[in-house]
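Below sits the subject:

***
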Amino acid sequence: MAIKASDVQVLRERTNVGMLDCKKALEEANGDIEKAIVILREKGIAKSLKRADKEAKEGQIFAYIHNGNKLGVLLEVNCETDFVARTEDFSNLVKEFAMQIAATAPICINKEELPKEKLEEESEIARKQLEAEGKPKNIIEKIIPGKLEKYYSEVCLLEQVSIKDGSKKMKDILNEYRMKTGENLVIRRFVRYKLGEK
């Protein structure tokens, strides 16, 4: 069944969950908002993301240097309490994110950080490629959102597929850990250094 954008917005406001996850939950619940809320809670998404308003001021700054000392990552991950920040699980999570950054070279943490101009530029590149392939205009406009999703999965850390577990995105791993600890966790910032690059 077709899911109304207004229903997706209502579900988002009630759960503080991303639009795509809300749409999927509504599809699974055949458009029933209450059932969709249950689905999101069962998946642990709604409960974990509701903590997003809690301040995350503790955490770790982690330095990862790849073998050969030619590639390094400096990463800050925050949580709510010093207790969680000092656990081995938290350290492993931070290291996993640092290794992901080293391997995939994302340019930002999430798609909200991408400048509007950059998205317009990527859309225009995709449009010209599709025009060159002889695709009709109405089809091109339907293909472009998929092209942008692929772009997000390449350049946005949380949208990337994990190099450690190819069945999950990095945002899924973060949300699982939020559920496990009951704390708000935030990938605050990172810098990736590669020898010889500016």
Remarks:
- The first helix runs from residue 5 to 15.
- The two ends are 50 Å apart (CA to CA).
